[in-house]
Amino acid sequence: MSSSSSLTQRNPQPDVSQDQSESPPKRRLQRQPSSTQRAMSQTLTSAANLANLLPTGTLLAFQFLMPVFTSNGSCDYPTHVLTTVLLTLLAISCFLSSFTDSVMADDGNVYYGFVTHKGMWVFDYPDPSGVGLPDLSKYRMQIVDWIHAVLSVLVFVAVALRDKNTVDCFYPAPEQGTKKVLDIVPMGVGVMCGMLFMVFPARRHGIGYPVTGDGARR
């Protein structure tokens, strides 16, 4: 017993609680980000996720069809024309999708329609009389819808100009100045569109966009 006690005295166990209490406190940020820094961070995040601002179906069609239409960037005259037609149709799709919206009826299903100056025209509702739908006049077309339509087309152009197949098809051997423009302009358009989408946030849930299923969100 005496030998074990002497060993304990010679090799005392460390006091864990004392070491934890004496550990230096973690440093915390002294400055909180300003409103300007937070706005810039959100803008850059929106610009980095430009594809999320486009209709899902249009974006999937672009990603799936561009390698086929451009022959992986090796375009001749027919494929050049077909690619131009495809890009035009996809841009029109982005424009028109900004004027679509969804509404939840009394049966619990979500229906889609086009917005007009008088309200919304629901084209897939089974009852032509509109019984069971909420007041569609509050879904009428607004100025912000036109802004979103133009911005969606610009975002699509920016995404298309960042696609390798598109650039190789229309600019197979760009000059140095053209190459700089192709590198700078899409990013500039992305940042500007990201800022404008923050100023004019989208409230519609049309075709190809996320649906909340809330028919009384306005």
From TrEMBL:
<dbReference type="GO" id="GO:0016020">
    <property type="term" value="C:membrane"/>
</dbReference>
<keyword id="KW-1133">Transmembrane helix</keyword>
<feature type="region of interest" description="Disordered">
    <location>
        <begin position="1"/>
        <end position="41"/>
    </location>
</feature>
<dbReference type="GO" id="GO:0005737">
    <property type="term" value="C:cytoplasm"/>
</dbReference>
<dbReference type="InterPro" id="IPR007770">
    <property type="entry name" value="DMP"/>
</dbReference>
<feature type="compositionally biased region" description="Polar residues">
    <location>
        <begin position="1"/>
        <end position="23"/>
    </location>
</feature>
<comment type="similarity">
    <text>Belongs to the plant DMP1 protein family.</text>
</comment>
<keyword id="KW-0812">Transmembrane</keyword>
<feature type="transmembrane region" description="Helical">
    <location>
        <begin position="143"/>
        <end position="161"/>
    </location>
</feature>
<keyword id="KW-0472">Membrane</keyword>
<dbReference type="Pfam" id="PF05078">
    <property type="entry name" value="DUF679"/>
</dbReference>
<feature type="transmembrane region" description="Helical">
    <location>
        <begin position="47"/>
        <end position="65"/>
    </location>
</feature>
<feature type="transmembrane region" description="Helical">
    <location>
        <begin position="77"/>
        <end position="96"/>
    </location>
</feature>
<protein>
    <submittedName>
        <fullName>Protein DMP3</fullName>
    </submittedName>
</protein>
<feature type="compositionally biased region" description="Polar residues">
    <location>
        <begin position="31"/>
        <end position="41"/>
    </location>
</feature>
<feature type="transmembrane region" description="Helical">
    <location>
        <begin position="181"/>
        <end position="200"/>
    </location>
</feature>
